[in-house]
Design a protein that fits this description.
With 228 residues, the protein is an alpha/beta fold. The protein has 10 helices and 6 strands. The protein has one domain: Cobalamin biosynthesis CobH/CbiC, precorrin-8X methylmutase (Rossmann fold, 3-Layer(aba) Sandwich), CATH 3.40.50.10230. The chain has a 6-stranded mixed sheet with strand order 1-6-5-4-2-3, with helices on both faces. β2, α5 and β3 form a beta-alpha-beta unit. 48% of the residues are buried.
Length: 228
């Protein structure tokens, strides 16, 4: 990966972009939210940018303090996007929320794979989908916002030697959600996760979309309608 790709531009008042904002009003709302988030959270690192976006996504700045970053996940995500690696999600809401512009990565949902495995092994459909997608996992970007069982299974696969480029793990809930993310943080994979029971689709989507935004900035493809 080039030095340009590993040191993308910071968000500032004069360079903020939002590739997902398709109208002037939408862009203005997005920019105002991020300006406030910068003032509260800071803007020193790419991780701060993810903290900002995830906090805006849930309407709560306390989310910034719950995010955990292991093994330099942002450069890993940028390199994977540059390589057109697939993005693999646990549920369709996560798949639907991921920014489609500015990158060439296919976005796959585990629910579309492994139905026979789910019935045979009597496991969740998301978990079965990750088993079915095992050959696509090396070098991929995994985004899990709902299914702790799938994240636990993925962690087991990582310990067996499967190597996604980066894992964004933010399942929400009271059953195995916190434990699955703790397990993720013990793996060798670059990862973004949340501490405790909080997380969910908005957090997972916000984290990957901010990585995509940073990638677009570095490639110079943001377009004049989205830059002041």
């Amino acid at each position: 990966m080039s030095k340009e790709l590993s040191h993308r531009g910071d968000i500032t008042a004069s360079t903020y972009i939002d590739p997902g904002a398709d109208t002037k009003e939408g862009y203005a709302i997005s920019k105002k939210s991020r300006t406030l988030a910068r003032s509260v959270i800071g803007d020193a690192t790419p991780e701060d940018r993810i903290r900002q976006r995830c906090s805006v996504a849930v309407g709560d700045f306390s989310m910034a303090d719950l995010l955990r970053f292991r093994h330099d996940p942002v450069p890993a995500a940028l390199a994977a996007l540059e390589a057109h690696a697939p993005i693999i999600t646990d549920i369709r809401m996560v798949q639907a929320g991921i920014q489609k512009k500015g990158h060439a990565s296919a976005i796959l949902c585990a629910l579309d794979y492994g139905s026979g495995i789910a019935k045979e092994k009597e496991i969740t459909r998301s978990s079965a989908g990750f088993l079915a997608l095992r050959k696509k996992l090396p070098g991929s970007i995994v985004v899990i916002g709902n299914a702790p069982s799938a994240l636990i299974l993925l962690c087991g696969m990582i310990h067996e030697g499967v190597r996604p480029a980066v894992v964004i793990g933010a399942p929400v809930g009271f059953v195995n959600a916190a434990e699955s993310k703790e397990l993720l943080r013990t793996t060798v994979s670059p990862s973004v996760s949340t501490e405790g029971t909080r997380g969910g689709t908005p957090v997972a989507v916000a984290a990957i979309n901010e990585c995509i935004t940073i990638f677009i900035e570095g490639a110079g493809n943001e377009g004049p309608a989205h830059r002041l």
